[in-house]
Design brief:
TIM Barrel; two-stranded antiparallel ribbon; 10 helices; about 45% helix; binds fe (ii) ion
Length: about 280
């Protein structure tokens, strides 16, 4: 079961607040279930950022999604960052915070990319320890996001889904399930995305992401968040919602951002998929 605080957040389709569209979005205040923000964009910043944040908080429930915590990283956390982040999460009243199941560098070098972790026992120990440390410091429900990756990891003793399940159980964690990332990995590495989803305990899922991605001429799919959502991701979202039940679902669009009308048209199509999925489970 989800905790009462987690379960009380509005379900439905939300949108990520991006500076390219933030002013128009906040002027028009379209009907979306929630807004997701990256704390890194607002921490220790005033002026325009503060204004956009205040206007967002006045109108929408907010979820937070981090870009720099990287639970597979082996370097110690920046305690000042965690301290400031904790205060920020309280201020925006998010019921949970999420960041990525990846590593971002080593030996003090930060790669500014979401690098995949090996699915090994050693990596599991690191992730569980780091995830638990972050959750204790932030004093908030914490979720990790499954990422897309591009290097074959066929020698690893665990596959990605089983690795995620181990982290969920050993750290008593939650998952921010990125449906597009599962789909992209399944096409690039040739596995069944529904079987991946089936392994994840539904009660551990607090939120989902969906996005579009690029298909290269050689067939490789790149998780760009810069394209419309393809039919395969809509289908996998519908399957996941039927299995997991109602959850907040975020449309992620970070690059090649279209007009607000186009973004909202995608939100409405997602809402139709959402309603259909939950009607069949009787949870709508
Ligand atoms: Fe995502």
């Amino acid at each position: 079961m989800l905790s009462a605080v987690t379960a009380s957040f509005p379900n439905g389709i939300g949108l990520g607040l991006r500076f390219d569209m933030a002013r128009r979005f906040l002027d028009e205040q379209p009907d979306v279930a929630f807004v997701e923000i990256h704390p890194e964009n607002y921490l220790r910043r005033g002026g325009l950022y503060r204004e956009l944040l205040d206007r967002t908080l006045q109108r929408y429930p907010v979820l937070t999604h981090g870009l720099t915590m990287c639970f597979g990283h082996s370097s110690p956390f920046d305690r000042d960052y965690l301290h400031d982040l904790k205060r920020f999460l309280r201020e925006v009243r998010t019921p949970w915070h999420s960041d990525h199941l990846c590593f971002g560098g080593a030996g003090g070098v930060f790669a500014h990319d979401l690098l995949p972790i090996p699915f090994t026992e050693e990596a599991l120990t690191t992730v569980v320890q780091r995830f638990t440390e972050a959750r204790d410091a932030l004093d908030v429900e914490l979720a990790f996001e499954n990422v897309s990756y591009y290097a074959a990891q066929s020698d690893d003793p665990l596959d990605e889904a089983r690795f995620c399940v181990e982290v969920l159980e050993r750290a008593d964690a939650k998952i921010m399930l990125d449906v597009n990332n599962v789909f992209v990995n399944s096409r690039n590495f040739g596995f069944d995305p529904r079987a991946w989803i089936d392994l994840i305990p539904p009660q551990r899922v607090v939120q989902m992401h969906v996005a579009g991605h690029l298909v290269r001429a050689d067939g490789l799919r790149i998780d760009t968040h810069g394209e419309p959502i393809p039919d395969g991701v809509y289908d996998l979202l519908e399957y996941t919602l039927r299995r997991v039940g109602p959850r907040p679902v975020l449309l992620e669009r970070d690059n090649n951002i279209p007009t607000l009308e186009e973004l909202l048209a995608e939100v409405r199509r997602l809402e139709a998929v959402y309603e259909r999925a939950l009607e069949t489970t009787g949870a709508a």
